[in-house]
Structures are given as structure tokens and as C-alpha cells.
Amino acid sequence: MAMLEFENVEVFYGKIQALRGITVRVEEGEIVSLLGNNGAGKTTTLSAASAIVKSHAGRISFAGQEITKAKPWEVVAAGLIHVPEGRRIFSTLSVMENLQLGGYLVKDRGAVQKRIADVLELLPLLAERRNQQGGTLSGGEQQMLAIGRALIAGPKMLMLDEPSMGLAPLIVAQVMQVIKEVNANGTTVLLVEQNARAALKITSRGYVIESGVTTLTGTGSELLADSRIVEAYLGA
Questions:
Q1: Which residues span the domain enclosing 19?
Q2: pLDDT number for residue 11
Q3: Residue 190 forms beta bridges with which residues?
Q4: Which residues of the chain have pLDDT under 50?
């Protein structure tokens, strides 16, 4: 059984068709990357799964349940958590307050405190900054906070949209290492990433999306070695 599956999903923005029958499958325990140029439909794919945008055709299922017509909070409650592009932390709240908000739908307060402790152990930089306002953190620290906040919800699966955007290469490597550790701790990951080389190094499988359809798929190592991928996304 797939953890997340898109079957011939179509999405329109007005008269513009963003997804043209996309099919993607993510198995439990995988890190799957979506590659493609700007406007290819990668972010829309994540937004359709998290019910931020409406699917006009096709089927989306998560953990064996159809979520095509679910509400965004129902998707979160099911354990599918979306970290959007741009981090979207609360800049005037402290690091701890941001983390606490990640557990908004979790009724067990003890579980929230345990997850916060686990996140601060995974991301010790946040522990050092726990009382700082989110807006005073560096870009890399804000990205770590966005991932950490998502983990407080207890995700079965994490969807990450451009987590390395605007970050220095050393920080990109740190973010990718955190994603690997999150996955190793049992969370399935769907990753949208412009830095194709960094993404494919940690990826179980990847899909290439062009004009709203999947055109190519393979393991991370297969795609890294594919001349079409090298030419289009990695530089010759």
C-alpha cells in the first residue's frame, strides 16, 4: 500500500491547467523527490495533496484513504504535513512558541512536550535560540524551525517545498542531513527541490514533472546518472 498516491490528478487555476493528469506514488519509508523547472506543477502537486488547492479530476489517497475532497485540517489530522516554500514561520513569536503551534491539533499535551524535546535534540541550534523571535533567525535557522514545527504535529509523512531555497551550500547540506535523519526516524518524505543534485543524493526515487505531467522516473542514483537530467537540471 502506498503512503501517498496521485492518480491522473488535474488542477486548474481559472482557465490555466497546472496539472494534466499527474501520477505519483510514494511508498512508506521513502524519500521521493519531484524535479522540474519553475511552473512545471511541483508546488501545485503538494498543494493538491494538502487540499490547499482543489483537484478537478483524478484521485489522491493517503495511507489507504481517499483525500481528494478532504479539508486542509483533515489532511493535517490524518498525518500528512506540508512545509510550504518560504518557511512561513511566525516571525514575531519565539522559537518555542512556533514549535508549540505545530501541536495545535494534538490533544495529548504530553505528546507535544515529548516531540518538542525530540526536535530540540535533533536540532540543537533551535534549543540555543528557543527564546529568540523567529524573525531574528538566519534563513537556515528559519528552515530548521519550519521543519521542526511540522514534526510537532507527529507526521506520518512530510511534504517539503524548496527547503534549500536561498541558502548557502553548507547550510543546504545541513538541511538535507536533517531530512535524512527525519526519514530514518520513520517519517516518509516527499521533497520538491530546485537543487536537484542535493535532492537526488538523499532520494529513494524521483519524478520529473514537465507541464503538469510526470515524464520520467527512477531511483536517485539512476536519475543522477541520466544524461537528460544532467543536461536539464545539473549542468553538463
A1: 2-89+156-234
A2: 98
A3: 32, 159
A4: 236
**DSSP collapsed to 3 states, 72-83:** HHHHHHHCEEEE
C-alpha cell at position 42: 511541483
Number of structural domains, the chain? 1
What per-residue string of b and e applies to 4-32 under the rule 16 or more CB within 10 Å gives b?
Answer: bbbbebbbbeeeeebbbebebbbeeebbb
Q: Which amino acid is at 75?
A: V
Helices 169-184 and 139-152 pack at an angle, to 10 degrees, of 10
Residue 97 lies in a domain: no
Q: In this structure, is residue 62 part of a structural domain?
A: yes
Q: What is the pLDDT of residue 34?
A: 96
pLDDT at residue 18 in the model: 97
Number of residues assigned to the chain: 236
Segments in the chain forming alpha helices (H): 42-49, 72-78, 95-101, 109-122, 124-128, 139-152, 169-184, 196-201, 220-225, 227-229
Q: What is the pLDDT of residue 194?
A: 86
> What pLDDT, on a 0 to 100 scale, did the predictor assign at position 86?
80
CATH number of domain containing 184 = 3.40.50.300
Residue 108 lies in a domain: no
Q: Tell me the three cell numbers of residue 76.
A: 493535517
- The answer to whether position 178 is within a domain reads yes
- Residue 212 contacts residue 22 (beta carbons within 8 Å): yes
Amino acid 235: pLDDT: 64
pLDDT at residue 177, as a whole number: 94
